[in-house]
Amino acid sequence: MKFKLPKIKKGLHWTTVMSEKALLAVIGIATCIASAQYLLTMYEAKEILLADLFMLFIFVEIIGMVGAFYSTNRIPVTLPIIIAITALCRLIIMQSKNMDALDLLVEAGAILVLSASAYIMSLKDRVSLEKQKEFKNENDTPS
């Protein structure tokens, strides 16, 4: 018995799309709840530290990533990289007093690698957008 894979793939594609959208909605809602809980904790402590602000930035970036998916139907690769950079900065700030110098250098090196990769990915996006424009212009011009 031979299966027709293109029909199966086409028939199951909607499940992938819907599950992706549903899970991202759950991530967005959970992030909003987590940020509200974090704000409540900050309010109860009556103290706002730099690490707290970095945590709020992480929440905002996650919500932005979910919003970017819903507006473009794709997640830009640079957003998770930026979230990782922010998380590492927060970790360094929280633990810098008790941290070994080598660990600090390794985490700073990780930030440098992530920054370079975000820059390279932004160049890739720029180049691909230019290629799309060129392709569109080539197809729009009469022969």
UniProtKB/TrEMBL annotation:
Recorded topology in the membrane: Multi-pass membrane protein
InterPro entries: P_starv_induced_PsiE (IPR009315), P_starv_induced_PsiE-like (IPR020948)
Stretches that traverse the bilayer: 21-42, 48-70, 77-93, 105-123
Keyword set, alphabetical order: Cell membrane, Membrane, Transmembrane, Transmembrane helix
Transmembrane found in the keyword field: yes
This protein's record includes keyword Cell membrane: yes
Subcellular location: Cell inner membrane
Top-rank taxon: Bacteria
Primary location group: membrane
Family: Belongs to the PsiE family.
Protein name per Swiss-Prot or TrEMBL: Protein PsiE
Species name: Candidatus Seongchinamella marina
